[in-house]
Amino acid sequence: MLPETTKEVSLILKYCYDNNVKVVPRGAGTGLSGSALPLEDSVLVVLGKFNKILEIDFENRCVVTQPGVTNLSITGAVQHEGFYYAPDPSSQMACSIGGNISTNAGGVHSLKYGVTTNNVLGVEMVLIDGTIIRLGGKNLDAEGYDLLGVVTGSEGLLGVITEITVKILKKPQSVRAVLIGFDTNDDAGNCVADIISAGIIPAGMEIMDKPLIIATDNFAKAGYPRDVEILLIVELDGTESEVNTLIEKVLEIAKKNKASYNRASESDEERLRFWKGRKAAFTALGAISPDYICMDGSIPRKKLGTVLNEITRLSKKYELAVANCFHAGDGNLHPLIMFDSNNKKELKKAESFGADILKYCVKVGGVLTGEHGVGIEKRELMCEMFNNDDIQQQLSLKKAFDEKSLLNPGKVFPILHRCAEEGRVHVHKGKTRFPDLPSF
Amino acid sequence: MTDIYRPNNQEEISQFIYDCYESNRPIEIITFNSKPIGRSIQCSQTLDLSKNSGIVEYQPDELYIKVKAGTPLIDILEVLKSKNQMLGFEPVDLGYLYNGKPNYGSVGGVVSCNLSGPRRFKSGSLRDHLLGFTAVNGKGECIKSGGTVVKNVTGYDLSKLLAGSYGTLSVLTEVTLKVVPKPEFSETFVMYGLTPKEALEVFSKVMKTSLEISGACHYPKNNIDFLRLNDLDNSRTITALRIEGPKNSVQERIESLNKMFKEVKEKTILEIYQSDLFWKISANLECFNNSQKIVAKISLPPTETTGFISQFCEDEIMGINNKYFVEWAGGLIFLEIGNEDPSYLILEKMKKFCKEKSAHITIMKADNTFRTSGFFLSSSDENIKILASKVKLSFDPKSILNPGKIYAGI
Q1: pLDDT at residue B318 in the model
Q2: Strands B142-146 and B130-137, bridge-based pairing
């Protein structure tokens, strides 16, 4: 279905609700975990026709938009006045703002400016029974329960979003990026931790390993050094003198951590070239491997070196090559596992490799997904992080919004949960009635 | 007669709530009883969380602190200060408002009220700084969500729901908060004698620049006596803008403000010590020190603020002269009104205004009569109330946790 108005979305959902038809909402379809994957017995509600920016309100520093508008076009609509929309996922040219809400999308600048949830002021959304509600608006903070906060990142399981109000920010006076090269993972990891410890919050802090440095430099001609094992991109913003002081401090910290290369951007053109390589990471890798899967764990920053070393070990174990890029500042890693889908065994191996990486992320104190969402890809891994009570609580909340479980079923939660659905199996102090039965 | 139970840990809290769930006994949740906020409630049981206290883990280089929910907030602030860090949402001490003396209360209480200070419009609200939690729901089950990392979309973001839920969904037992480095330097640029309309224009102008203002408030003439700082003249209206960051950058930006507002004759600059004090006094609502009236917080789009002020705060012709001030660069008004009949009528009119202008009211302080019979939040949308009620029941199916604290009957 391709509705054009909120009323039409409401009518579709009401019909589906009355007739017990499952519904999968979908934006631009750029998601990486399968949250918007159609089901064979569902109606697919595609928001592609909701493609207009409705209002630009500089006085209240916000933009009201339809959900099908791409992330980048919001910045496009306000940049003539020096404003921008902060979250910038790599797919920002194609991904829709509605989809960004459903996965709480981040990007390379979220360390300083936050992810989607920190930049959304309000939504209009349609509940599964067709009820239209508005959460938030042009003012700050929720009234009563922060339903907007829980809808953001809910992967289309709680309602269909038909209008969005986002906060816009004024562009900083001065922005510069610096490239820093290292010979070992540990040196790079320590440098990241030391920058943060020094009280510096860069606008962005990214890491790429050698395979990606070469691939992205070939693809985007970014001007990266090719003789370093690992490359750190640090972006700093503020007034001109502030940025210059911070760059000096960062370079000093880099030197202490045995950096073998550094270069600070001298023009905005050069800075954008540095980013062009990083933002093309996924595309560039396509040129060197027939297939790859992209993982998305979050870990404590100081575990960066440890996790990279574990990924190298797993790469040898599974005999599959891997390339790594990280949002190092906020500990969000994207290992890209390369394989050949013509070889059926390799796909299975790649998936197991990915799952092992995510399990390791949880083991060191991290989480399964930083910004891509659980979707179908990671739903069976939810039990690595959550116990039965945690998941039952989330399922109860789902029922508060969608009692018949018609919206995007089979996503996010392990599908074997049915045995304990409704929370009727009360587990108190870890004592279950049938401890030998598998439950999630 | 209310029974007060003081558990030592999460296990005991869980057992207690489980027992209350089984026997249908409603529970009022307190820690230090520092914030009589929300509707008045009557419960047979009181759960006092003050013993579930202590810092679990503080990782300055990972920018988070994990604490038990009953920990006094002041202890946390002291620990962070020792590492030159702070809570980015700038916590609010409501002790002045309620009792005329400082009392931040517990971290769990502050989280449950989602209280954010003057930096809110730049750095986000408390809920943006809550990375994860463990809690006990209304069935006595221990639940958790989030973690210690800033980027996390693993399952629903329940942290957002629990922040600002006033203890009606679950009892928080442990919270993980993001911490940020303390700015190296700060100064405040003060302009005197501006009307509210002019102040709002100033806010609008500076928010369209790259000066990264981190505090912007306006105090009218009838509400400045309490502001006693050496370099501050408290005989005329005060419009203040805060700048924070590295020293050279702060001074550059203050100079830019000077140029931008060169036509304003009466102005001053508060250096770091007085600047910090000014914003602390403002954050803590010290102008309403031990107020015996109704104090309301109105969150509204900045463009509606002037209209609200002329209708409900001050208007010479209409004879309106209520004590108020404007925060969050025009996005927030704190207002004190009498607790007699005409004031109730004003509140009803304010509700109507808010419904039309995408705004909302929170009653921060009121006497017991109003807290029993009046409203706490101005919500008018029935569909949202129905959904809120379902959400409440999804955590607390028998409605035993702080029942009726936010809405009557929920």
Answers
A1: 77
A2: antiparallel
What pLDDT is attached to residue A422? 38
Please give the structure tokens belonging to residue A85: 């929309």
Residues of chain B with Cβ-Cβ distance to A10 below 8 Å are: none
| pLDDT confidence of residue A183 | 96
Asked if B208 reaches chain A (Cβ–Cβ under 8 Å), the answer is: yes
The conformation of residue A416, written as its DSSP 8-state character, comes to G
- pLDDT value for B409: 82
Cβ distance of B153 and A397 shorter than 8 Å:
no
Q: Which pair of tokens denotes residue B186?
A: 């700060």
Length of chain B: 410
DSSP label at A439? -
| pLDDT confidence bin for A268, thresholds 50/70/90 | very high
Residues 153-182 of B with CB under 8 A from A: 153-161, 163-165, 169, 180-182
Could B60 and A197 be called an inter-chain contact, meaning their C-beta atoms sit closer than 8 Å? yes
Q: Nearest-CA distance from A171 to chain B in Å?
A: 6
Does the pLDDT value for residue B1 go beyond 80?
A: no
User: What's B406's DSSP letter?
Assistant: S
Smallest Cα distance from A225 to chain B, Å: 29
What's the confidence (pLDDT) of residue A426?
A: 43
How is residue B24 annotated by DSSP?
T
Taking CB atoms and an 8 Å cutoff, what residues of chain B touch A332?
149, 151
Residue whose pair of structure tokens reads 């920010």 in the numeric block: A169
Helix (H, G, I), strand (E, B) or coil at B302: helix
* Nearest residue to A142 (alpha-carbon basis) of B384, B325, B200: B384
pLDDT in tens, B208-259: 999 999 999 999 999 999 999 999 999 999 999 999 999 999 999 999 999 9
Q: Which residue has the tokens 């479980």?
A: A405
Angle, helices A268-279/A210-220, rounded to nearest 10 degrees = 120
Q: Residue length, chain A?
A: 440
Contacting residues of A for B172, CB less than 8 Å apart: none
Region A11-16 average pLDDT = 98
Long-range contacts of residues B268-273, Cβ cutoff 8 Å, at least 24 apart: B268/B190, B268/B192, B268/B231, B268/B232, B268/B233, B269/B187, B269/B188, B269/B189, B269/B190, B269/B231, B270/B187, B270/B188, B270/B190, B270/B229, B270/B231, B270/B232, B270/B240, B271/B187, B271/B231, B272/B185, B272/B186, B272/B187
Residue B233, chain A, CB below 8 Å: the answer is: no
- Could you read off the pLDDT of B275-290 as tens digits, one per residue? 999 999 999 999 999 9
B213 touches chain A (CB under 8 A): no
User: Using CB atoms, which residue from A150, A170, A299 is nearest to B156?
Assistant: A150
pLDDT > 90 fraction of chain B, expressed in percent and rounded: 91
Rounded Cα distance, A91 and A371, in Å: 12
Tell me which residue of A133, A1, A305 sits closest to B387, measured CA to CA: A133
pLDDT band for A420, please (50, 70, 90 cuts).
very low
Tell me the pLDDT tens digit for each residue of A175-207.
999 999 999 988 999 999 899 989 899 999 999
